[in-house]
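General statements about sequence and structure are easier to judge against a single worked case. No coordinates are needed to read the tokens, only the vocabulary itself. The sequence in question and its structure tokens are set out directly beneath this paragraph.
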Amino acid sequence: QVRLVESGGGLVQPGGSLTLSCVAAGNIFSINAMAWYRQAPGMERELVAEISSGGSTEYADSVKGRFTISRENVKNIVFLQMNSLKPEDTAVYYCNADLVERGGSKWPPSDYWGQGTQVTVSS
């Protein structure tokens, strides 16, 4: 089995900072891209940031300059550093990994999701 577990969510004041982490564990052969999505009440889940196995990154326009995604490949961990937080950043944040399972098909790879962690930005 493969599991993604997020942590680091919580309540923070506007302008504050928060760092999320996600650990991928289980029968993993390799991890390709990892990403953070978020979903606010009444809205569709949206891509916030993603990072390739080589370290290239992409960000949603709404978080550029404020959020930073990074990863530690050896430990299968992805981080999301969130600075200058705004109330509109309030959402459940989900970790996503595009990966190859040990002994499984190499193409197409499989998508796995974490359970999500709540981030609330409020004064």
